[in-house]
Every structure is written in C-alpha cells, then in structure tokens.
Amino acid sequence: MLLSASACGGRGGASARLRANPPRTVTRETGQRRPPLAVVEREGDPRGAIAAAVTMEGIAAERGAVPAVALAALVEARLLARGVDASAAGGWGGWRLSALVASPSQAVQVVDGMREAMLAPVVGDEAALAAVARKVSALSRRRLPDRALVGVAQCTGEAFGTGSDAVPEVDELERWRRASLGLGRVSFASAGDAALADATAQALVRAPAWPGSMPATTDSPAGDARAVVYDASGELLPGAARIVITVRTATPEQAVAAAPALGDALGPLASRLAALDAPARVRSVVATAHADGGCVAATFDVAARELTTDVASRVAIAAALARQELSVELADTTASPDFGRDLAARAADPREAAERAAWWTLAGRRAAEGDELRTALTVGLAAPRDATAPGAAQTAEELRSEIDRATIAWHAPAVESRIRVERGQGEVWILVASTCGVLAEAASDAGAGAAVALAAASRARSTGGDASVEPYVTGDGVGVLAHGPAHMGESSSAQARRLADLAARALMADPPDPERIIEARTALLVRAGAVESRALGTLGDALAPGHPSWIEPFGTEFGLASASEEAIVLRSSALRAGPLRVAILANSDAAQAEAAVRAVDRWVARHPGETRTCPPLTTPVTPHPGTYAVDVPPGAPSEALLALPLAPSDDGARVAALWTAAALDGPDGLLAHALGAAPGDAPDSALARGWSAALLGAPRSPALVVRLTSSDASLDAAVAQTRGLLDRLRQGAVKDADRSRAGLALGRAAFAASLDPRARVFELWRSEPGTPPPARPRSSAPGESGPSQAPSLEALRAFAASSLLDEALVIVAARPPRLDPSGHSFSAHPTLLDRHARTRERR
Closest Cα to residue 354, out of 690, 98, 620, 18? Predict the structure, then answer.
C-alpha cells in the first residue's frame, strides 16, 4: 500500500507549511548493488524501527493488488517463522514492512532476516504459502464496487479485489518475487538514534549484493479522457451520486502537499461545492507518492434529495467544478524536494516514520510530459427507488455530454475584470461587486443588498487575518473590498490570490450567516434612523418611486424592517447569479493581477449556456415632484433636501450637473452667498449652518441635490433663498467665474481622491472596458485649472435653463413636529414653499 496524506472532510494530512528546523532525515551510503537506506534520526522512542518498502508498479498490473498483497504476506510469514515480529501490508502498486528493534544488534538481525525473507526463492512446500492464500482470499472479499474504479485504486494504492483475485501458483508468485525484489524497487529505512542507523547501514553493506530488477513504471490511465460512468446502485443510497477525480502530478511532493487544503471542510473546494444548487460533500481526499510522480484522488457525494430533477446537469456541474478546483490548487502548490522526508520525520510512531522514509526514497518525478496534470473522472449513479433505471449507455452518454458542457462553462471567464498595476504600493486592493447594484430593490426590501455586503465583509474579516475587508455599497455596485500587504515570504501572486479568495468567497460562495445578517441589519437600521438617512430615504421614494435605495443604497427603515432573513439570502443568491466585476490594483506586475482575476473567477458559480444580466425594470420610474416631510426629535437640527431629477441617459446633463453642484458648493460658492454665509457677510446673517450640493442617484435616477441644515426657524427662509438662486441660474446667472471656481474645486477633489487607493480602485471598477486605466490627474493638482473635459459656459447655462425647473423640484423637509394652537403636534409644514405646494395641487 502506498504511503499517503489523507484529508477526509476536515483538516488533516500533511501540510505544505512545515515547521522550521525539522528533524533530520538523510540517506546513508550502503555501497554498490545495495538498496538505499533512509535514516530518520530521533530520540525518545522506547524502541527504534526498521522498515522496507517495495514498489510493484508495472508488475502483473492485470492482477491488481494481488501481487503486492501476496508478497507482503509471504515475507511477513517467513519473518515470523524466524522469530522476527514484523508487520507487512500490501496494496495496489506496492507494499511495506516494518519491525520494532530494541538495540543495534537486533537491528542487524532484522535487516538480515528481511533480506533473506525477500530473496529466498518460493518453494512449493513452505509454510508461508498458507499465509499467502489466507491474505489473498481476504482481498477477494474486499471487492471494488465496480471495475470503473480501477484507476482510482491505482491512484490511492488501496487494497481492493477486482474479481480476478485467485491465489497465485508457486511459479507465478516466484516470478513476481524475482521481478520486484531487486535494486531500484526496494529501499530500507531506520528510525532511531545514530547507533541504530550505523548498525542498519553496516548490515546492508556486509550482506551480499542484491539482484537487479525491471524498472518501475506506472500503468495508469492517460487522463483527461471523457468521464467513466458506472452504476453505483448498492454502493450508494438510491438516487445519490458519487464523483471521483484522480489527478496525476509530475512530482509526489506536489500531490501530497495539496491534499490538506483540498480536503479542508472549510477550504475553497468544500465551500464552492456546498454553494451549488445541488451541493456536493467532500467525502475524502487521498494523495499518494508513486515511483513516477504523485496522485490525488478526491471523492464527492451528492445526496439523492439534491438530484430529484436535472440529474445529469447537476452532477456534471459539480464534477466540472471539482475538477477545475483540483487542477488550480495543484498548479498553485509548490513543495520542497525534501517535503516527503520531512513528513517522515514528523510521524509519531517510529515504524510509521521508517515506512514513510523508505517509501519516499523510492518515489520520484515523472520523466516525460513535463509538469502537466493528468486528470481522470469517474461518476457513479445509483438508481432512484421509485423509477425504472434508464439504459446505462444512454445515462452515461447524457452525463458525459453534460460534463463536457459544464467543463467548457467553467473554463470560460464569468467575471469582468479591470486591472491596473501600481508597482511599489504597500498593498494590493481587490474590489468584487455585482454590477446590478441595488437595481432590483423595492421599497419593501430597500437595504437588502447592503445587508448582504455588510454580512459578507464581516465574515471575511473573521478569517482574513491582517487583511482589511470592507463592504462596498453604491447605487451601481454591491460587493466586498479587500486589501492588505504581503506576508513574510509570500510571493506577489500568492498575496493576490489570498486577498481575492477572501473577497470573492465571502460574496459569492459562503452562505450568509444568520447571525451576521442580524448584525448587519441592526447596524443598517441604526444608520437609517439618523435624520440625514431618513431624509435621503424619503427623497429616494420621490425621485425613484418604489426604489428608494437608488438614492439611499444603504436602505430605509421600512425596507430593512420589512426584509426577512430569507429575503436577504435570496438577494445574496441574486447578486451571485448576476453579472460580476472585479477591479484590481496590483503592486507588482500584470501576472499578479491576472492571478487575482483567476482566483475570483473560480468562486463564480455558473451553468452551461447561462447569460448573466441584471433584472429588467417592468415599469418606468418617474419622479414625483412635491414637498415631503420627515419628523425629527425636538431640539434636533432641521434640514432640507432640494432635488432636481435628470434624465438617466443624458451623460451631458450629468456632467453639467456635477459642475453646477461644484459652483453651488463651498465656503465661497453660490449657495454661501445666497444664504448670507460667504466670507465677508455679517456673522449673524447666515440662514443655514451648513450647505452642500452634489450629484446623487447615478446612474439610474440621477439628480442634482442641495442639502441645507439650519435652525427650524430659519429653514423656510433658507429654502426660499435657495429656490430663488436656482431660478436666477435658470435665467442665465451662471458666470465664467463660477465655472472657473467649479473647475478648481473639482480638480482639488479629483487630486485628493487620486491619492487614496480606495478611491482609485472604485474609479477603476466603474471604468469602461477597453479604456486606458485611470491615472493620477496631473491637471487636477491644487491651483490648476481642473478637469480637461469641462463643459463650456454656454453648456452650463443651457443645462440650467432646461433642468433647474421649479415645477420639477422635489423637496424633503426634516424638522421637529409643530404645535397647533391647542398644543397638539402635527407634521405638516404649510409655510414651506407654499407656492410650490399649490402648484403641485393644481397638477
């Protein structure tokens, strides 16, 4: 049986990150025409151990595990007859032998006994043949479920019968012995102190030379052929499926080092399979070292309850995903040439340490075909209880066709990418988000997408170590941003993959955690209860009726309170199923960025022939001009929002609105002068404590929005002055000085944003495909003229004349309730823009 690293649905097996200063495992000289000796130097065991390993690969492959099991039984029985308490076990492709020893002198006796037991010819009347017959008969009762699994057994080295497990004749057993027990196929190992190693080496040196043997070659499938499908009825519960993938690697170290990550119950493979429409469970991952490379066998089960419909498609998607994940993980795995020997040194039992060291001495690299992986896929389907099983050939062909389609789908990129390389930066920044944003949210679930983003970011932070993870929530994007420095000794590509896995897995694979959903919704409800958020939510209801989160993407109190946990989980699924985009600010080179893109793409679930699109709007969204009231607690500052909606498809209007907002904004802007708050105005003349202007709601419901904060007594006057200012601008009051000041303000803002990698990755994510990546705007430095693509003064005036219309205004007033003469409070505000309200009534 081949020595392996196994991981069965959990953390286990051999780790590629071994501790520093491992115990010493060395090869000792034994002279010419003697088997090699691997020495594991260790102290503390009450006894040491001697082991031998034999590879049977290429010998009587048609008999499966019988040759190895028979020879292991023969040698073990011979040693027991000599008084050597040894244990031997055979499997498919090899066998191993070990014994505990109490002293160097006993080690010499064991080595001499092993040599004689191996090299003595088989004779017809020896007692050891009874043990051979007994072990082979036991093997025949441990049958492979189907001949289709022969390749899997060859990979794992497990001892299974195949139906051709007859007890070998004496001459047949002797042929196997002569062919296998010679130089190149046998190795020895000791585990213990230096005296034990010296005695073992001397025993091999003093003994006569060993015979030669035929070279070891692996008789394994070519790989990458179409899937083998078999009837697993009886092996599995009715209606269930089992997927087994074997991957041959160029080196054994590559296979064994990758096994723990592949078998990790919380690892990428298990998480991606669990996120499928028909989840698959990792049953086992076994990695083995062979004479000409390594092999990984991964087994996955799909329960019958997941296969009530679309059986072939669902099994094919899981199989294609698993095959891709194994290939990617193995391709990304690197291990030292001493990896196997270091594993041997870490065994707890000295016999296991010696067996591992002996076997890894025989393990080697595949001589031909380079470093490519050879993959084979086997699928077992159990007939359902309540259906007549279809013809096996028809079922197999259908499944193979679906696997081919699913494989193509998994190889096709499913995520848009935007890449920029900024060499020398301290961190890599990766933003993964749905390009649908909050498009599908209605008033009843406004904020569900934000809850998904917050919950995903929280989950990622819990496992991200020193990486920073943040939710990304805007009108046009909902996702996760991850960034962080490289770890000590970590390559640039590994850094990018780690951060990409962190962000993409949290958003696109791990199911939303109920506790984190509650946590996220609670935080968003607190935010939505603030005065500014309540006002924005009301503004959203007016500018985009039925879709308030187009203006306030973090949601409203009503939407967050109404959306159930199930609704948030469904929103998560909808975001995963729609178009996705990743933006990467790499700090090394393009290869680093491409590694991040591939890592993100791995997490995107897909189906053959699917088209990823955002949901269409069933009805047009038309703004509702008017005045709206929001109550705030007594004593809280009052504020008002004045919004002028724009046509979503008018790019020119949005640019002009951005410049108009910049002209209105600032301590010396048009609003400051209109409100009596500009430099030079009397200190007590200001009608507002704060003011700002911005373009909100892009891209689906853009609007030029002015925000005013003041005392309740001054709010009406501040709104009236602002309306008057907008009316003057509509009549052509925009001046060239206003345009210049706006350009400078926008230039300063752009320059400040360009210094922040967070703003740069946001800009990169929003950029159009095929356009040059955004660069730091030289013309936007403080004191310069601002962005080069500036609207003319005539364009600004034309925009004001067509868009700053009083009848289009949406006004939200947030102020404490007023008292009527009887002392009762009421929420209406009849004094605020009465003319505007009467105009609305006439309409």
Answer: 98
